[in-house]
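Task card 7
Instruction: Convert sequence to structure tokens.
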Amino acid sequence: MSEFTHINQQGNAKMVDVSNKEVTKRTAIAHSSIIVNETIYQQIVQNTNAKGNVLNTAQIAGIMAAKNTSTIIPMCHPLPLTGIDVSFEWNTTSSNHFELNIQATVSTTGKTGVEMEALTGASVTALTVYDMCKSISQEMVIRETKLVEKTGGKSDINNG
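Output:
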């Protein structure tokens, strides 16, 4: 049985000591999406939402969330992030399906990865779109948030 890394000798939570880990370039890409109705879609693409530019606000929120991940996820290490990018792509495969795909890419050079920062950034971006548009309709659905890719450290992951 392997030893738990986040539990101290008293059986309580602890932050893992990463001081002996190797410093490497680390990146993570996370994805989320939100499905909206046509009215919301039109307001977002035409920038006519009463609260302002939805995608710009959501992008800034996602960046801020990634930067502050360690303040809301208890066991995350505060990291000096070297880059954060939040991007969008619409999937409008039919006249009644408007899905905004969100990608958060985070990088650092350090001793621990940035998966949680990317996942937090993607999640908060979707939540911000919801918040900016909820006065129009609350019939939005935030879909799966997942890690797409991770590089650096002991192993690379590609779920894309």
